Amino acid sequence: MILSSGQPIVVQVEVFSILLVTAGIFVFLFMVNAAIVKSDPLAKPKGLVLIGMLYYEFIQGLTNDNMGKKTAVKYGPYIGAIAMFMAVSNLSGLIGLSQPTANYSVTLTLALITFFLIQSTKIHYNGVWGYIKGFFEPFAPFVVMNLFGLVAPLLSMSLRLFGNITSGGTLMQLFYLFTGFLSSLFPFIGNFNFIGVFLAPFLHSYFDIFSGLIQMYIFIMLTTIFIGNEIPQE
Amino acid sequence: MGDIGRGLIAVGAGLAVMTGMMTGAGQGYAAGKAVEAVGRNPEAEGKIRSMLILGAAIAETCAIYGMLIAFLLMFVFQ
């Protein structure tokens, strides 16, 4: 495809992996839903129903702790949705997809949603006038610092996720190049990267599983804390 | 870009990764404090561990920024 200005439209690889990830989540959730509908509410939960209940309890506990019970009901579904999307897309590097979160557009979008939620919560509790007045507190020259403080969480949250996932992917690429070079020194084996086969699982379990899940946890934790900060204590 | 330019880019990338120095010190300090906390009340071990991992991962952001700059220097300015 070509734009009217003559520049070609580049469809990045991550678009397809986002589609695959969301399709996977969709199918999984349909299975969980079917299992819940069929299950006996009085019996002990097991299988997919148990997974669904544990996930719900995890999200509920996290939001209740940081936002209070009343608002947790409102924001819980959003937190659960981005947690699931981020966890699956961070883990998708394990099956050879290019991770959606290794693209800055995706992480910036996720951080932007959180940013607008924070601002809308602020406006909801303070009113528009109180929101504008909040920038000039404690006195007028502080407006510069308050504006920087407004943008800082957006940048830090998006860059943290993006940097972690990208650096993990790049390090794994360098690692495969290096082990490929090392194993090419051995005779008779040819280009088969046999050293990487033995060493890669440990690095994958750190960079993809541990780092990916921790970054997901930090993202939803910071989202709930930032939103919870704007809610006045009664 | 000449040979000297490429070399300077490599030097810049190396310097950018030096942000990891103080991150290491900070994470070590946090881990030491966590060990002290577990020594004081061992029954809170699970909570302390999760908070340590959270804090360490947030502190790591700084080093990750340095690494991002290094990657940008290496792959963008070639």
3D architecture notes:
In chain A, helix 1 (about 15-40) crosses helix 2. The mean pLDDT of chain A is about 85. Chain A starts with 12 loop residues before the first helix and ends with a helix. Chain A is an all-alpha fold. The longest helix of chain A has about 40 residues, at about 145-185. Chain A has 6 helices and no strands. Chain A has one domain. Chain A has helices at about 15-40, 50-65, 70-90, 105-135, 145-185, 195-230. Chain B has about 80 residues and is mostly helical. Chain B has one domain: F1F0 ATP synthase subunit C (F1FO ATP Synthase). Helix content of chain B is about 85%, strand content about 0%. Chain B has 3 helices and no strands. In chain B, helix 1 runs antiparallel to helix 3 and helix 2 runs antiparallel to helix 3 (about 45-75). The longest helix of chain B has about 30 residues, at about 45-75. The mean pLDDT of chain B is about 85. The interface between A and B is medium-sized, with 14 and 11 residues.
